[in-house]
Specification:
Chain lengths: ~425, ~170
Amino acid sequence: MSMTLAEKILASHAGMEEVHPGQFVEVSVDVVLANDITAPIAIAEFEKLGLGRVFDAERVVLVADHFAPNKDIQSAGQCALMRRFARAQGLPHHFDVGRMGIEHVLLPERGLVLPGDVVVGADSHTCTYGALGAFATGMGSTDIAVAMATGRIWMRVPETMRIVYHGELQPWVGGKDLILYTIGRIGVDGARYKAIEFGGAVVDALPMAGRFTMANMAVEAGAKAGLFAVDDVTHAYVNGRASRPYRVYQANEDAAYAQVIEVDVGQIEPQVAFPHLPENVRPASQAGDVPIDQVVIGSCTNGRLEDLRVAAEVLRGRRVHPDVRCVIIPGSQQVYLDALRQGLIETFIEAGAAVSTPTCGPCLGGHMGVLAAGERAVSTTNRNFRGRMGHPESEVYLAGPAVAAASAVAGRIAHPRDLRPHARNT
Amino acid sequence: MTITGKAWKYGDHVNTDVIIPARYLNVSDPQELARHCLEDIDPGFAGTVQPGDVIIAGENFGCGSSREHAPLAIKGAGVSCVVARSFARIFYRNAINVGLPILECPAAVDGTEGGHQLEIDLEAGQIRNLTTGQVYQAEPYPPFMMEIIKAGGLVPYIRRQIEAGDLSIR
Ligand code: SF4
């Protein structure tokens, strides 16, 4: 009865001894999530079910992050609808402007999602929580409505693909580069319908921020979930945050994987995904001469304190190129406050960057940095689909915070090692 | 149920951002969303698509975000069915849940060009290309999913369980 991590968690939440890939199971969920874009439909569908109350007010989390602070009257209406629902249901975890963060930065930070959980969210990047050893997956609003009402949801047990990273990381290479490289290798549907288990000595040594970044983009390879084993790094992160007890599951040594991929990280340099798919990946040094108009550093992928530290390391004592707007968005109020206390915000502003309150904003072409026709952005976000950040004729290049910050200084896609030491473009 | 309509053909990885760009996600009314359906890859689509028409696409249709606005926009535009080589998993769930018929059938995709007339028997999963005379058989739905489809979507399916008193709340 050998099972992968995903199978272990699903079996226990289905109340079964074991489960097999392909099997349809009904699982209990520990946390249900929606945001200001997906909650309005979920709430409407929830009302149609006619049950009245959510299954457990403590476990339904609503975050106003996509078009908040409200970008227009209609988005204000969507947030208002969500707010009214949260009040009527007495939801303690409704996060509004001034107390919020981008959902996938916020929920782990608040200890609301924990190892061993099954989490379903009306947002495709719900898979981020796999970094904590949870089975977390994105669904649509109707599924989420049912989960909010019943605390249960049907799932097809996915096959698991294991990706093992070994070797020594080069300077400036982080979780974002590893996951971009991986997507470049397996393609945007390389893990379709599967769970990915990330492993190997490299990820064992990776801090939580890097693990969140990698799990976050599992869906960019088509995966249903991307999971990491729970270890000391996980425990150190969760201790002091956990809002309730949790249970740790472990894959069996002889679990059956649909596929095992080995990655030698020694040769991987900082990566850039060219438009219009996250799989169009190239090493930063081979990006060629790509002048840019905007840089965005933030999002549920790279909006954590560690990401801002990397960006600050590059930007300290340097200036954002005169032709570039650099927008930096801390992923939560806490990240913002920590960055402020550590002097990072000062570094950004002195460098000529704009720093915003937490929001998804430009990541999905909402506000706070929408692109015009023909404009190009280097962004630490996770998708570069056509029109993702604005005009359909604009372009998004995905990278980690080091390349993004270096590009902001250089005015074109750049590897941080190629910047002149503390060059000042005045 | 048999449907007939004209084929609109697209490639691989048609993602939810192009099906309905995020800039229009400040509303969730299907008719409103339908006005912008696919506009970033085919500006002519929303204005000319006719009720009953069929979208034909390659691999991984509907990849990207979990926005249910995507199948709602397609349904709102009057599209009767999406036939693809494969679907992204969240889109697949969403389409079943909101009652947008979808079929996986690589052979039909390869044998159909934009503008061909199609006749589809949804129950049987049979796709007849009236222009070429070819007939294709789509992958059957898993039985569990067929029940949701027959109920008319996930909400009516769960409602039925509630009414029968056999719904378990966690
Ligand atoms: S930051 Fe971007 S990818 Fe992340 S939840 Fe917000 S819109 Fe989605």
